[in-house]
C-alpha cells in the first residue's frame, strides 16, 4: 500500500494536474463566507460530474447538505474547508483514473435564514487507461505457472487504470497462487503513469515461495464438542495442495454450526520446501442453546410474533433440535425439527420435522394441517441444496363461507395426504435480508396418492426465482418469477388448501391477500415482478415496481384475460427491529369490491 500511495503522490505533483499549479480553486460569492459568523450549508450541487456518484463525493467531503430531518444539525461553511473539498474531489478522480480532473470553480449563493447553496464545477478530463498489457515478473517460474498467473490477472490492455482496478488485480493474482499451493505468495504492484498521454504501464512482481501440501491437523479449544465434529467439516484431505479458498470455506462452515464463537485455522511452515504443512484449528466454543423472540407487523397479517429455540449439539455429535412457534392474524404454526448431520459425508444430512399449521384464507375458509416430513438433504458446492423425502399429513377445512360455490365445497373434505416430495434451492445473493446482487431460486414438487395410503391423488409443483442486479452503485434491479401447477390423478381431486392463491404484499401488490384469483383457488399460478430501487441515504431506499399475476382454474392454463397488474412506488429502510417496507400498490384492473389503491406496510422479518 505504501508503494501505491507513493505512485499517486508522484503523479499528482506533476504540472497541470491541479488548479493553477496548486493555487486554490476560485470561489464566486466568497463575500458571503464570513469568518466570524460562517453561514450554514443549504443545498450542494455538482456541475460536470458524470463519472463519479455525487453521493459518494459528499460522503468524503467536509461540507454536507442541509439535513432533511428537524433533528439534524446543519454544517457551517468555511472558506478553507471548501478549498479542501475541491482538493478532495480532485483526489477522488485521480483514484478513479482521471488524473487531470480539476475543480475549476466554487459558486456560493446566499439563501434566507443564514444558509448558502454551494456548487462545485468540475472538469473531468480524459481517463487514463492501461496501454501496455500488464506484465508479470515471476522469478524462476515454469511456463505453465506463468500462464496460470497471467490468466488470473483481470487487468488488460484498454482497461481503465484506477486505484481499485490496479490493486484488485494484484489481489486476484495473489489469491490464484495461494489457492494452488503457494501459501506464502505475495504480489507487489508497480505502475508507470504518463498523465499527458493518459496511459499507464503496470508490472506485478510475484514472489511465490515454496509450494506446499496440507499436513496433519491438530484441534485445540474443544470442551463439550467432539473432535470429529470439527474434522468432518474440513474441505481438504491431508497431502493435497494447500488452498486458501478451502481454508476459508472450512471456517465458514464451522461458524455455520453455531457451536463456536471463534474459529482460526493457522498453517505452519514445513521444515522443507516439499514437506506437508501442519494445520492448527483453534476454536472457542459458544453456548450450545439459544432462545429468540421477534415481533413484526404487516397490513396482510397484522401483528405477528415468533419464538424460536435452538439446541446446536442435541445429544452430541453436532445434532440439532429446533422448535419454532409463529402467530399472526391469519397464520399460526408450530414445528419441531431434528437434524442429524453427516450422513455418509459432510454434504449429507437427515431431518425430521413435525409441524402444525393453521391458516385463514380471506373471505373463503380456514384450514389446519398436521404434517410429518422426513428428508434427506444434500449440499452441492457452496450454493446448491437438494432434498428428497416423504410427506405424511392430515388436513381439514372449516369455517367455509358463502364465497365457496357448492361445486367447490367437496374439495374441503378432510383427508390424509401421503407421498414423496423433492426440491432444490440455489442461493448466490449477497444478503438474505436485503439482497443487492445474485440469485435466489427454489423448486419443490409433491406427489400424493391413494397408492401411498392417502385419500387424494394429485401432484403439485412450484418454482420461483429472484435475480438481483446492481449495474450502477446505489441502484438495484430485481426481476422475479413464480410459476406452479397442480393436477388430480385419475378420478381424484386436488384439495382446496393445496391449490394456488395470489395477491398481497408478497406477490401482486395492489390487491388483497389471496384475492387475485377465484375464492376456491386455482391449479395454475403465474406471478412476475420488476422492481427498481435506489439507495438515497444510508440504508434508506426508494423503489418503483410493476407486478403481474394470474391464477388459472385448470392445470397449465394460460388465461390472458385473468392477468392482473399492480404498479406503484415504495420505500425501504433498515431499522433496529428489522426491515421497514412501505408500498403503494395501484391495481390496474381493480375488482368492484376493492379500493383503487392499497398501502402495503411491513416491519420486521416476514415469517
Annotation keywords:
7 helices, 607 residues, 16-stranded antiparallel barrel, mainly beta, disordered N terminus, globular, 4-stranded mixed β-sheet
Q: Mind explaining what this structure looks like?
A:
With 607 residues, this protein is mostly beta strands. It is built from 7 helices and 26 strands. Strands 11-12-13-14-15-16-17-18-19-20-21-22-23-24-25-26 form a 16-stranded antiparallel beta barrel. A 4-stranded mixed beta sheet has the order 1-3-4-2, covered by helices on one side. A hairpin with a 2-residue loop joins β24 and β25 (578-587). α4 crosses α5.
Query: How many distinct beta strands?
Result: 26
Count of alpha/pi helices: 7
Q: What structural class is derived from the secondary structure elements?
A: mainly beta
| Rg (CA only) | 31 Å
How confident overall, as mean pLDDT?
Answer: 87
Strands side by side in the biggest sheet: 11-12-13-14-15-16-17-18-19-20-21-22-23-24-25-26
Broad shape = globular
In terms of per-residue confidence, which ranges show pLDDT below 50 for 5 or more consecutive residues?
1-21
The portion of residues forming beta strands comes to over 45%
Give the distance, in angstroms, between the N- and C-terminal Cα atoms: 46 Å
In terms of topology, how is this protein built?
Elements: H1 2-12, E1 27-28, E2 40-47, H2 54-59, H3 79-95, E3 102-110, E4 115-123, E5 129-137, H4 143-152, H5 163-178, E6 186-194, E7 199-207, E8 213-220, H6 227-231, H7 244-256, E9 260-267, E10 276-285, E11 289-298, E12 302-311, E13 320-327, E14 331-343, E15 345-361, E16 365-380, E17 384-398, E18 415-427, E19 438-448, E20 458-469, E21 475-488, E22 524-537, E23 540-552, E24 564-575, E25 578-587, E26 598-603
Parallel strand pairs: 1-3, 2-4, 5-7, 8-10
Antiparallel strand pairs: 3-4, 6-7, 9-10, 11-12, 11-26, 12-13, 13-14, 14-15, 15-16, 16-17, 17-18, 18-19, 19-20, 20-21, 21-22, 22-23, 23-24, 24-25, 25-26
Helix pairs in contact: 4-5
Amino acid at each position: 500500500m505504501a508503494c501505491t500511495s507513493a505512485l499517486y503522490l508522484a503523479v499528482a505533483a506533476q504540472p497541470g494536474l491541479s488548479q493553477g499549479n496548486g493555487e486554490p480553486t476560485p470561489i464566486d460569492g466568497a463575500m458571503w463566507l464570513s469568518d466570524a459568523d460562517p453561514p450554514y450549508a443549504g443545498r450542494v450541487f455538482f456541475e460536470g460530474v458524470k463519472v463519479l456518484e455525487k453521493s459518494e463525493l459528499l460522503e468524503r467531503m467536509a461540507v454536507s447538505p442541509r439535513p432533511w430531518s428537524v433533528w439534524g444539525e446543519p454544517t457551517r461553511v468555511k472558506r478553507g474547508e471548501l478549498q479542501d473539498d475541491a482538493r478532495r474531489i480532485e483526489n477522488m478522480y485521480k483514484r478513479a483514473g482521471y488524473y487531470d480532473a480539476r475543480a475549476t470553480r466554487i459558486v456560493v449563493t446566499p439563501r434566507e435564514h443564514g444558509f448558502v447553496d454551494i456548487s462545485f464545477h468540475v472538469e473531468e478530463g480524459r481517463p487514463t487507461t492501461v496501454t501496455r498489457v500488464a506484465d508479470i515478473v515471476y522469478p524462476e517460474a515454469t511456463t505453465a505457472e506463468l500462464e496460470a498467473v497471467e490468466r488470473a490477472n483481470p487487468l488488460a490492455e484498454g482497461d481503465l487504470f484506477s486505484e481499485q482496478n490496479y490493486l484488485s488485480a494484484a489481489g486476484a493474482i495473489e489469491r490464484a497462487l495461494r489457492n494452488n499451493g503457494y501459501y506464502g505468495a505475495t504480489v507487489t504492484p508497480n505502475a508507470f503513469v504518463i498523465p499527458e498521454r493518459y496511459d499507464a504501464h503496470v508490472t506485478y512482481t510475484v514472489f511465490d515461495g515454496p509450494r506446499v501440501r496440507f499436513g496433519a491437523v491438530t484441534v485445540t479449544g474443544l470442551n463439550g464438542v467432539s473432535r470429529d465434529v470439527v474434522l468432518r467439516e474440513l474441505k481438504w484431505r491431508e497431502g493435497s495442495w494447500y488452498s486458501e479458498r478451502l481454508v476459508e470455506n472450512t471456517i465458514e462452515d464451522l461458524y455455520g454450526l453455531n457451536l463456536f464463537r471463534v474459529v482460526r485455522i493457522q498453517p505452519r511452515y514445513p521444515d522443507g520446501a516439499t514437506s506437508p504443512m501442519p494445520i492448527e484449528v483453534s476454536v472457542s466454543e459458544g453456548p450450545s442453546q439459544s432462545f429468540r423472540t421477534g415481533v413484526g407487523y404487516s397490513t396482510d397479517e397484522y401483528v405477528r410474533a415468533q419464538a424460536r429455540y435452538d439446541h446446536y449439539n442435541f445429544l452430541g455429535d453436532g445434532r440439532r433440535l429446533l422448535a419454532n412457534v409463529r402467530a399472526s392474524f391469519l397464520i399460526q404454526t408450530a414445528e419441531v425439527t431434528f437434524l442429524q448431520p453427516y450422513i455418509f459425508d459432510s454434504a449429507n444430512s437427515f431431518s425430521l420435522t413435525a409441524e402444525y399449521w393453521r391458516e385463514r384464507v380471506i373471505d373463503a375458509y380456514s384450514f389446519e394441517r398436521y404434517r410429518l416430513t422426513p428428508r434427506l438433504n444434500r449440499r452441492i458446492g457452496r450454493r446448491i441444496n437438494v432434498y428428497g423425502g416423504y410427506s405424511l399429513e392430515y388436513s381439514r377445512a372449516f369455517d367455509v363461507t358463502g364465497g365457496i360455490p357448492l361445486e367447490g365445497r367437496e374439495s374441503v373434505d378432510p383427508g390424509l395426504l401421503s407421498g414423496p416430495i423433492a426440491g432444490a434451492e440455489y442461493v448466490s445473493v449477497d444478503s438474505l435480508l436485503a439482497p443487492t446482487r445474485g440469485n435466489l431460486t427454489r423448486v419443490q414438487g409433491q406427489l400424493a396418492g391413494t397408492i401411498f395410503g392417502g385419500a387424494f391423488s394429485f401432484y403439485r409443483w412450484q418454482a420461483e426465482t429472484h435475480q438481483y442486479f446492481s449495474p450502477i452503485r446505489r441502484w438495484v434491479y430485481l426481476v422475479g418469477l413464480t410459476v406452479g401447477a397442480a393436477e388430480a390423478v385419475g378420478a381424484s381431486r386436488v384439495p382446496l388448501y393445496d391449490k394456488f392463491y395470489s395477491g398481497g404484499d408478497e406477490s401482486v401488490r395492489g390487491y388483497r391477500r389471496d384475492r387475485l384469483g377465484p375464492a376456491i383457488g386455482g391449479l395454475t399460478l403465474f406471478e412476475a415482478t420488476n422492481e427498481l430501487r435506489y439507495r438515497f441515504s444510508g440504508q434508506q431506499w426508494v423503489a418503483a415496481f410493476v407486478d403481474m399475476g394470474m391464477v388459472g382454474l385448470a392445470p397449465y392454463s394460460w388465461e390472458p384475460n385473468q392477468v392482473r397488474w399492480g404498479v406503484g412506488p415504495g420505500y425501504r429502510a433498515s431499522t433496529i427491529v428489522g426491515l421497514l417496507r412501505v408500498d403503494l400498490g395501484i391495481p390496474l384492473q381493480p375488482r368492484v369490491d376493492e379500493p383503487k389503491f392499497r398501502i402495503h406496510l411491513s416491519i420486521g422479518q416476514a415469517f
